[in-house]
Amino acid sequence: MIDGLVAGRLMGEASRRVDKAGRGYIVARVLARNKADEEFIVNVIAFDEAPCAALVALRDGESLSLAGGLTPKVWTDKQGIVRPSLDMVANRVLTAHHAGHKDDGDA
């Protein structure tokens, strides 16, 4: 697994799941782009409370940044074109909600 940082936009809503042992986790998909403006789908899973809460607070299309372990993958689209994707186990999530909009008068 590769330690990575990914910035992009949430695709759809994050969803809660429960494993066989009854532990909850969150899955989401993020659309990210590289310097060449190529799109990558990042399949995200989060287990810890903070990243889970951050992901479910977001709505479709909202921007976010993620830190965690990355695993490169490929998938084949309907036209038979092989495309890259990434799987990420997110341990940190940063959004505009977290950055806050503190207005203390200092510009």
Brief synopsis:
The protein is mainly beta.
What would you note in describing this structure?
It is built from 2 helices and 5 strands; from the N terminus they run βββαββα. By secondary structure, the chain is mainly beta. It has a 5-stranded mixed β-barrel with strand order 1-2-3-5-4. The longest helix has 9 residues, at 49-57.
Helix content: 10-25%
Beginning-to-end CA distance, first to last residue = 41 Å
Largest sheet: 5 strands, mixed, barrel
User: In which order are the strands of the major sheet placed?
Assistant: 1-2-3-5-4
Question: Which whole number gives the mean pLDDT?
Answer: 90
Radius of gyration: 15 Å
Report the order of strands and helices: EEEHEEH
Number of strands: 5
**Unreliable runs:** 101-107
Shape: globular
- Compute the number of helices: 2
Q: Helix/strand/pairing class, anyone?
A: mainly beta
Percentage of residues in DSSP E strands: over 45%
Features:
disordered C terminus, 107 residues, mainly beta, 5 strands
Helices, strands, pairings?
Layout: E1 2-18, E2 24-33, E3 39-46, H1 49-57, E4 63-76, E5 82-95, H2 96-99
Parallel strand pairs: 3-5
Antiparallel strand pairs: 1-2, 1-4, 2-3, 4-5
